[in-house]
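Researcher: I need the complex structure. Ligand is GBH. Inputs:
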Amino acid sequence: MAGWSALGLSAKSAESSQADSSQETSQKNRLPNRSLSSGFPAGFLWGTATSAYQIEGAVHEDGRGASIWDRYAHTRGKILDHGNADVANDHYHLYKEDVRLMKALGAKAYRFSIAWPRVFPEGAGSPNPKGLDFYNRLLDELLANGIEPFATMYHWDLPEALQDRLGGWVSRDTAKAFADYAGYVAERLSDRVKHFFTVNECSRLVHLGYGAGSDAPGLRLPQAKLNQVRHNVALGHGLAVQAVRAHGRVGTRVGPAENMVTCIPAIETPANIRAAEIATRQLNAGYLTVMLEGKYTDEFLASAGKNAPKYTAEDLSIISSAVDFVGLNVYTPNHYVVAADNAPGFTLAPFPASFPHMDSTWLKIGPEAMYWAPRHVAKLWDVKSIYITENGTSAADEPAADGNVYDVDRIMYLRNYLIHLQRATSDGVPVLGYFLWSLMDNFEWSDGFEKRYGLYRVDFNTQRRTPKLSASFYREIIERNAVV
Ligand code: GBH
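Model: Output:
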């Protein structure tokens, strides 16, 4: 790939749109990159994603310890439909069928998460070999079907014992326990897993888990403590990167899976693009910025003031341990940015009440987020390998009279985001693969089973899985390696 600085995106798109309007049909080969018929790079990896607590069930089986989500889901009033994931998709028993669902899509990769409390029921101390065995079975099944496993180490199911004993991520000892667990897993699974993600979405577990209290463990900590939690989670990420390097086989790759704050130039002028980059760096200060730069920005420390986290220089070098790739969960635009003559150099445009959203109100429809998120990461931090680790939407799926789910709203959403992903790869943004959230409907955290994200519909009474129309749509995309 040519160096990023050689891309000259704005000049190039100006040229293509000129060609587009004046010479239309005669010069097909000069159509702009965003042409619907354009494909993705050869070898682009297509997959689906899930997480352990959301699908596995079997919470008391084979020595699994309790997680903070077991307790939270069983606390009255926390889950919208009063559901819990004790059974969920019963994937612990039905994993072979679920691998067949992936295969039917033609997907070549699968992102799943490992339940820490299965492997270390108490969070630390003695491992539970039966817990790890489940993942051995799953990996063997995936590989036998030609599907490459990508494993997330932590998708929010902290062992309850660590919450009780240490206060969870309030303590840096949790970060150390996480690294021990990550090293243990890397040592035993890296013969088959070549890509590990450390923490899924640091910001959600920090803000919703310890700030707003709307995710497990349901705490509302004051700002100073919350900043310390954020620091400890970032530290856990860095320590886990080091543990994978120390214990994984040579060539094992590791990186985060972040839901970065995605800042979009409201109008794609060079000044607004620059302003969106500045905003991206600042608004991700406690996460990607510190992970990839090894320091907290001046603005971050100034605005935290006396509530800033306590840390050492060594912490910062651990947090910024070199990663092999960056994973990005991209659902929605966080901000539209306009360049401004003020101190930060940007204005965040307020969202008009009429801004469209999908089934969930937080899920605003801004397909260009799929272009700008990876592009900012590549440009700001010179990241050479990016995976889209999640993208998808809930929808008010209802079977039609003929029994099919015609989820054309999900297809509309996916198509438009994928057009922007294709625009990114055409522009040389190094995105290597895409994991659609989700393979199948599952336990959607505090929304319970009310919100459905799957390509396959799940009847939670019978555990029957049925493909929605979007499953056919995704299969076409995978087969053609192009947006259809
Ligand atoms: C992902 O988070 C998760 O990784 C995945 O487990 C989940 O199933 C999937 O998305 C679908 O939600 O407090 O109501 O304003 C997505 C990013 C960021 C979405 C926080 C919800 C807050 C909603 N999330 N956001 S609200």
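Model: Summary of the prediction. The first strand starts at residue 45 and ends at 49.
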